[in-house]
Amino acid sequence: MTYKFYLQKAVRVLFLLWVTLALLLTALRSSRGEESEVAYVDGAASTSTSISDLVATAVARNPGIAAMDQRIEATRGAMIQAGLPLNPNMELYMEEIGAGGTAGEQGILVEQEFRTANKRGLAVCVEQWALEVLTWQRRAVSGSVKNEVAIRTINLLAARRLIAVRAHLLELAETTERQSDSFLKAGEISEMNFLQLKVQAREAKLALTQAKNDCAAAEKELAALLLCDPTQLPAQIEESLEALCGAEPLDEDRLLDSLLENNPVLNQTRTVVRQRQAELSLAQAEARSNVTLGGGIAYDSEEETTVAAAGFAMPLRVYDRNQGNIKSAQGRYAAALRDVESAELTIKQQLARVFQNWVNAREEVLVYRNDILPALERSWQMTFQAFQSSEAGYLEMYNSQVTYFQSAAQYIASLRRLASVRILLDGNLLEGDMLDDADLDGMD
Known about the structure:
This protein is α+β, with helices and mostly antiparallel strands.
């Protein structure tokens, strides 16, 4: 009896533990589901941040920028090493040991090689320009990351805003479908109109699902740049799409002047020219021989005298006058000059394309904001009033709603394009992975 009693008690305890665990898991899943739904609603969560904060986080965490910082430090070390003088050479020698029963001659020699033609200063100059090249390259990579984060944030803002439009359209569609079912039973609408309304409700639901999927994809893309989980993204961004589009017009000529002066990729190619010029000067200086001065003192045990010695050495440049390295440096310098011309041409072409995109996107936004949307809103109101007075059919009213909300969705897409193009124009046209596009020769 005692054994059965304790067994039954243990079974009851295990059952209660299992039930408690199941309830906890259910509550946990429910809370996660609620959090995932909150992510789709602007302002639903208490967390909010600005694009500048997101940009700062991405730059601080980006491994490519961190690697470039280490390359910069390595180049600083190379610059220090290039400026160090050559070490002197000391030689201790013993000759004629045992001559006349003495220790022979013992002495010490010290030699120092001196680099002529300011080779040490030119070598430091080469590393200084290499450091400047890397600095400009880091600015290009950092600017690319900033623009990419801003554009991905714009995509997320547009996706979240589109969800609200699609959700409103689905609400109207489902309401229309429910009411049309009663109208069909009452014989007030035909079965053909009812089926059309039913299909439109399904299409509205599908559009909302796609909008949520697009929003989830936008969250993943932004989270990848921030090196975080999508669930850690803020529920609200402080800036709006309209504010990111900018109100003031842009001047193409001023943008071109600014790009030619401030674009880090172009400035990097210009700095490479100075680096190649310094390398050429160093190669030409290497054609001049270094000199070695030496001196020493010795004691002759056999003669019991102290003697001194002095010497001068210099290699004769009979065959090797560094002509191969000079020719190579000349070619690299000439190529760097052409790279500057190519970079300037590329920037002009990019600006022409991006600026035209800005003009088209801005015109589209203005037309939707000032003409199309107000007209469609007024048309929808008039159709609704006509429907209330039985002057318009139910399908006509719903089509007016669909046209209005679809145009609102197109307006959001136009805002997204305009804001993205504005980011590129304000961000020196930096886009893509600058680590792949940049000239890495300056780091050698």
